[in-house]
Amino acid sequence: MLANRQYSEQMTSPKTVAIAVPLEAELVDQIRAIDPSVTVLYEPSLLPPERFPADHAGDPAFQRTAEQEERYWAMLGRAEVLYGFPNESPEGLARIARDNPALEWVHAMAAGAGGAVKASGLGQDVLQKFRITTSAGVHALPLAEFAALGILNGFKRSAELAQDQAAKTWPDLRVPTRLVNGSNLVVSGLGEIGLETARIARALGMNVSGTKRTIEPIEGIGRVTDNAGLSALLATADAVVNTLPGTAYTEKLFNRELFAAMKPGTTFVNVGRGTVVDEEALLEALDNGQVGYACLDVFAVEPLPQDSPLWNHPRVMVSPHTSALSAAENRLITERFCSNLRTFLDGGDLPHLVDTVHFY
Fold first, then answer.
1. Taking every annotated instance into account, which residue ranges of this chain make up the domain D-isomer specific 2-hydroxyacid dehydrogenase NAD-binding (predicted)?
2. Same-domain pairing of 307 and 331
3. Would you call 273 a catalytic residue per the annotation?
């Protein structure tokens, strides 16, 4: 009984939230309005200006004075809760985790923050002292829309059309495009992004199957399997969308064998993580026609190296890991954070926790 009362007192005691990344003042006010017991520390002069909506890292040219740098870290050191990783970097997370023993919870701006947490180099002894949540789900709609763009680009031969337009060529032989309606889509990873992609695909008339760690029926999805059954699914696909995070278990999942299992001319879209794809195997599949078109928002190494053949491949669309961005992102992340903050204050279970063992 005493332990329960102490836990309740801990969760209902006044909490301090520090805003560690650029954020509009009106959104900060939304956080303040969640509970009168919450103190929100927000000093815009200590944060870099945004170059575009939801520019969480801010202008790289921004530099704090020595006095501002001291104030910034002192502000973060007074908080139990952080909105964003300090300086939006793994190094910033590592520093505050070590310097602030009162830290209880950090909310990441990214949908997949496992890689950044791993890059922080923090050991399990430190990571077990506080929780890290992600903004997973906030980016599901823009990512799914981008996936739909990739599918349509592949089926409607947008790469060839762009090349003809650039050359001012009106071809004598006008090749027909493919119908999306009635075609088969395989979604690798039926989480929030995958399910939103499936919803849009079904609206276009596609038949959708996919993979999930836990095999269970999903309304509107034809077949659900785990990664062990992915190869068989790919043999039926006209288009494939990967939404999987980058972990030790998904690294180079899409290898030569999986690309070989696809039907010739398959459209491939990646909005998950670049490490899930063996890029050398993808290039081979593009060159031999197994993959007809690839729409890629993520890459194994980012920024994509200048000497990567993907830049100039005639049937590849390169997007610089920006497909999740939208003008509404800060608002949506703040709404998610406010909901989580209410749960945190009430002693509930926070959603979308980073797995600090497998880093996803």
1. 151-323
2. no
3. yes
The verdict on whether 199 is a catalytic residue reads no
pLDDT digit string (tens) for 7-23? 344 455 899 999 999 99
Q: Which of 26, 69, 70, 302 is catalytic?
A: 302
Residue range of the domain that includes 147: 139-318
CB 180 within 8 A of CB 237: no
Answer yes or no: do 125 and 237 share one domain.
no
The reply to whether 6 falls in a domain is no
78 is catalytic: no
What is the rounded distance in angstroms from the CA atom of residue 352 to the CA atom of residue 132?
8
Burial class from Cβ neighbours inside 10 Å (0-12, 13-18, 19+) for residue 101 reads exposed
pLDDT tens digits, one per residue of 110-149? 988 999 999 999 999 999 999 999 999 999 999 999 999 9
Verify that 281 and 266 share a domain, yes or no: yes
Domain CATH code at residue 125: 3.40.50.720
Please report whether residue 153 resides in a domain.
yes
Rg (CA), the chain: 23
What is the rounded distance in angstroms from the CA atom of residue 288 to the CA atom of residue 229? 24
Written as six digits, the tokens of 190 are 């039926």
Length of the chain: 360
Residue 6 has pLDDT above 80, yes or no: no
User: 268 with 148, same domain?
Assistant: yes
Q: Which residue in the list 91, 321, 331, 335 is annotated as catalytic?
A: 321
Looking at residue 134, its amino acid is T
* Amino acid of residue 195: L
Residue of 139, 273, 313, 352 marked catalytic: 273
* Edge-first strand listing for the sheet containing 207-211: 224-225, 207-211, 184-188, 239-242, 266-270, 291-296, 316-318
Q: Is residue 1 part of a domain?
A: no
- The neighbouring-strand residues paired with 229 are none
